[in-house]
Amino acid sequence: MGKSKQTGNHNSDKKKSISKTWKTKRRTKDLDQIHADMKPETAAKLLHQKVDVDVTGCAQHYCLHCARYFVDLRSMKEHFKTKVHKRRLKKLREEPYTQAEAERAAGMGSYIQPKKVEVKTQAVEEEMV
């Protein structure tokens, strides 16, 4: 579709650029934030959340790698088979970028190739209804 050509809004001085609003509307977590969520203690909290009626699916069905909530278990299992989820897993295999790596790239040390991280789709707990 392309970039929004509208740059202003007649009624509001607060919104100078509508295109920025559209760019950030569906923003997801970055890969380094997801790597932090994949640590065992944080992952346990995210996967076993209390019931929250304000979140999709009452916060009971959460994909850790894509940082998405799902309505039910069936839709989450279908999501695990999609290209979107598989691409996210492939991107998460590479270790996140660190400050030490930035310093090495600037000439303050020798280059070390990024390590590969073992990433698998999370286990799904079947609930008896």
Primary descriptors:
129 residues; mainly alpha; two-stranded antiparallel ribbon; 2 strands; 36% helix; flat
What would your notes on this structure say?
This protein is mainly alpha-helical. About 35% of the residues lie in helices and about 5% in strands. The protein contains 6 helices and 2 strands, in the order H-H-H-E-E-H-H-H. It has a two-stranded antiparallel sheet with strand order 1-2. The longest helix has 10 residues, at about 85-90. The mean pLDDT is about 85.
- What percent strand? under 5%
The pLDDT mean sits at: 83
> What structural class results from the helix and strand content?
mainly alpha
Please give the largest β-sheet: 2 strands, antiparallel
What is the number of strand segments? Answer: 2
Summarize the structure.
With 129 residues, the chain is mainly alpha-helical.
Task: Please give the structural blueprint.
Blueprint: H1 18-23, H2 31-37, H3 40-47, E1 62-63, E2 68-69, H4 73-80, H5 83-92, H6 99-105
